[in-house]
Structures are given as structure tokens and as C-alpha cells.
């Protein structure tokens, strides 16, 4: 008479696997927030090193495309847009490719790193909700609206800091910080439209990243010919920092880690790490750039973090 396997035998292994997946997903999410949080500081450092927005954008997409090329050759049919098709790939590239990076790094020339890390991820859910309501008729719940109200209040605090200039604090916000803040608002709008279209078209995250990186190569010569460039005048260590961080870590590493966290935790849980970005930027900015947030900026950052946390958890 054969013995039946006890269900309890498989339980510990199943639980252990689930636990490992959970902790691996958390680790991927934390590393993604670390990379994205420090990105604002690295972009700000490029200004101090004498690099222009065009320099950094070209380095980022040249390196990322080189690293992604082997995967693109195996995965993307037709090359380099795959299942996206040329029209959709071109639209998404205009919103989240080289033009997006150019605007982001351009804003870093005017405003402190913390402004980018608070305004961009903070405004993205606000803009996304507004666009989803205007285009798709989706109505957000009360809890999400409360969270977004906190986000707007926090960003308003940053706006008052920028308009008030350096007299309000020692974060490095000067008289032209408001210009950088406007750049970051434009980034939030671009990314929100990108996210809305990507969701509507049912796109794959890896396909989108590969296509936007490779198609961005087509506009890099235009940037090089029409915009200021000082890459030949800058020390190699500064160039290597931007190439490795912006190209390899942000362009490829953060993509893989975020996609993996979504796979292991689900999309809703993966987004819960986004409020950590401003904290990482604030600590890295103080340690590496000497940009210490003022009391107004700390208050604004806390409001945005609280608002993002509430909005991301709400239905």
C-alpha cells in the first residue's frame, strides 16, 4: 500500500521560496530607489564639473545603447522597435528618451538636486491622475485625492523656496532655481503622458527601454551640433562618472531592478519605494555636494513623501 505524501512536507519549502522572493523584491526596490535618488545628485555634479546637458544626455544614451545592443539584437524584431512599431516607439522616445533626459539635466543647472527628486516623482502621480480623468474619464478615490493634495502642498513649499532665492535656506537654491523647477515640472508632464500611453498600448517595460535608448541615438547628433558642449574640456573622471552612472546604472541597472521588483512584488508594491527617492537625494546631496535643505524644503519634502505614500496605497 503506497503512502501518500504529506502536504506539510512541501509547506516549509513553499514558504521559504515565497519569503526569498519577498526579500529579493524588497532588495531590488530599495536598490532602484537608491540609484534614482542619487541620480539627481550626479546630474547636479555634472554642472559643477563643467559638463552641459547635451554632454550628459549623449553619454547616457550612448553607453546604455551599447550595453543593451546585444539584448536588442536577440529580442527586437523588427530591429530596433520590436512589437512597439515605429510610430509608437518614436512617440515614447520623444517623451521618455533623450529629450526627457536633456530637460532633466538642464534643470539641474538651475535648481538643487533635492528639487528634482521631489518635484518630478511627486508631480507624476498628480499629472497622471489629471490626464487619466481628462482622457479616460477615470475618477480617483477620496484617499488618493487627499494624498495628491499633500503632494501639491509640499511642491508649493519648494516653489516658495525657489522664488524666495537663497535667502530662505542653504540648499543651493539661487535666484534662478525656479527655472530649474519649471524644467522638472515639464519632466513630470512628459513622464505622465508616457506612462499613460504605455499603459494604454500594453507595452513591455524592457522593449520600451531598449527602443527608446536606441532611437535616442538618432537625435544625439542634433544635440551635438546645435547645443553647447564642453566634453572635450572636462577631466576624464567627470566623464566616466556620468557615463557609468547615467548610462549603466540608470539606463540599464535601474530598469532591470525595477522590472524585477515588479515581477516579484507586483506593480502596486513596487511603486511604494518611490517616496524614498527624496530621502536618498537629501542625504546624498548633503554628503556629496554640501547642499543642505532649508526648513521649508524639509517640510515640503515630508509633505510630498506623505502624500505619495497615501496616494500610492489608495485605490
Helix and strand layout, with pairings?
Layout: H1 7-48, H2 53-75, H3 86-96, H4 98-108, H5 113-136, H6 142-164, H7 177-201, H8 205-216, H9 220-226, H10 236-265, H11 267-270, H12 276-289, H13 295-313
Helix pairs in contact: 1-5, 1-10, 1-12, 2-4, 2-8, 2-10, 3-4, 3-7, 3-8, 4-7, 5-6, 5-7, 5-12, 6-13, 8-10
In short:
This protein has about 325 residues and is mostly helical. The chain has helices spanning about 5-50, 55-75, 85-95, 100-110, 115-135, 140-165, 175-200, 205-215, 220-225, 235-265, 265-270, 275-290, 295-315.
Task: Provide tags for this entry.
315 residues, mainly alpha
Describe this protein's structure:
By secondary structure, the protein is an all-alpha fold. The chain is 78% helix and 0% strand. Helix 4 packs antiparallel against helix 7. The longest helix has 42 residues. About 2% of the residues have low confidence.
Amino acid at each position: 500500500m503506497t503512502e501518500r505524501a504529506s502536504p506539510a512536507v512541501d509547506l516549509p519549502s513553499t514558504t521559504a521560496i515565497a519569503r526569498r522572493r519577498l526579500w529579493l523584491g524588497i532588495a531590488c526596490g530599495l536598490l532602484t530607489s537608491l540609484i534614482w535618488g542619487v541620480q539627481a545628485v550626479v546630474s547636479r555634479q555634472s554642472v559643477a564639473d563643467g559638463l552641459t546637458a547635451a554632454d550628459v544626455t549623449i553619454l547616457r544614451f550612448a553607453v546604455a545603447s551599447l550595453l543593451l545592443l546585444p539584448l536588442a539584437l536577440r529580442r527586437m524584431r523588427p530591429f530596433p522597435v520590436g512589437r512597439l512599431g515605429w510610430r509608437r516607439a518614436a512617440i515614447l522616445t520623444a517623451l521618455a528618451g533623450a529629450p526627457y533626459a536633456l530637460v532633466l539635466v538642464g534643470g539641474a543647472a538651475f535648481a538643487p538636486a533635492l528639487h528634482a527628486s521631489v518635484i518630478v516623482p511627486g508631480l507624476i502621480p498628480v499629472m497622471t491622475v489629471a490626464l487619466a480623468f481628462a482622457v479616460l474619464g477615470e475618477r480617483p478615490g477620496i484617499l488618493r485625492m487627499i494624498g495628491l493634495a499633500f503632494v501639491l502642498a509640499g511642491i508649493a513649499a519648494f516653489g516658495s523656496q525657489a522664488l524666495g532665492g537663497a535667502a530662505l535656506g542653504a540648499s543651493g537654491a539661487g535666484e534662478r532655481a525656479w527655472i530649474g523647477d519649471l524644467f522638472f515640472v515639464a519632466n513630470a508632464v512628459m513622464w505622465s503622458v508616457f506612462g499613460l500611453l504605455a499603459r494604454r498600448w500594453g507595452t513591455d517595460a524592457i522593449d520600451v527601454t531598449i527602443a527608446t535608448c536606441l532611437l535616442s541615438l538618432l537625435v544625439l547628433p542634433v544635440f551635438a551640433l546645435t547645443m553647447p558642449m564642453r566634453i572635450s574640456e572636462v577631466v576624464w573622471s567627470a566623464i566616466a562618472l556620468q557615463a557609468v552612472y547615467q548610462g549603466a546604472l540608470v539606463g540599464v541597472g535601474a530598469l532591470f531592478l525595477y522590472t524585477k521588483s515588479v515581477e516579484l512584488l507586483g506593480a502596486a508594491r513596487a511603486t511604494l519605494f518611490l517616496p524614498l527617492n527624496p530621502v536618498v537625494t537629501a542625504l546624498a546631496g548633503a554628503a556629496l555636494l554640501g547642499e543642505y535643505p532649508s526648513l521649508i524644503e524639509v517640510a515640503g519634502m515630508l509633505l510630498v513623501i506623505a502624500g505619495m505614500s497615501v496616494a500610492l496605497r489608495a485605490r
